[in-house]
Amino acid sequence: MADKQALRALQTRLAERLRTAQAQPRTPSWLAVECRGHGLLFPLEQAGEIFAPPPLLPVPHTQPWFAGVANLRGGLHAVVDLAGFLGVARTPLTDAAREQSRLVALGARLGVNAALLVDRLAGLRGVEQLEPDAGAAGEQPPFAGARFRDAGGRLWQEIVLAALAEDERFLAIAA
């Protein structure tokens, strides 16, 4: 009898916490990554799993930034070297830096089996940790979101993964 009452009380508390969480406004949060020294933010609700880079199968006659395909949890994913795609890859990665690199899969809801190769993960960022950057950014691609600065003054560029997944240049891998 006591177990049933304890279970019922737990269910009641959980239901109340769920109602409270749903009533609160959602605040933006991001996965922070680095690509050749540039700070980038991926919206958490659009990012998928994170993987250590497995062996990549090269695909001939593709863009230089298309790294190949990889088996990620039994699914075939296109792998894009994000620094190369963005045009910021000026130097090859050292072996030590390559060990820190990761693949960030695009969220399943985006409908594209793709993963982005980034130099390293830089943690999670919330809206309370960042200030909007009012500096001039110049012409930006459609997938470039807002720009922010953290408390240390570092610039972070949001990459809207949903817009990236629909970008014609991103989808056109043929050389």
Tell me about this structure.
The chain is α+β, with helices and mostly antiparallel strands and 175 residues long. Helices cover 23% and strands 37% of the residues. It has five helices and eleven strands, in the order H-E-E-E-E-E-H-H-E-E-E-E-E-E-H-H. The strands form two sheets. The chain has a six-stranded mixed beta sheet. A five-stranded mixed beta sheet has the order 3-6-7-5-4. A hairpin with a 2-residue loop joins strand 4 and strand 5. The mean pLDDT is 88.
Strand content: 35-45%
- With helices defined by DSSP (H or I, 4 residues minimum), what is the helix count? 5
Which consecutive residue ranges, at least 5 long each, have pLDDT under 50?
A: none
The string of secondary-structure elements, in order, is HEEEEEHHEEEEEEHH
Provide keyphrases for this structure.
single chain, 175 residues, alpha+beta, six-stranded mixed β-sheet, five-stranded mixed β-sheet
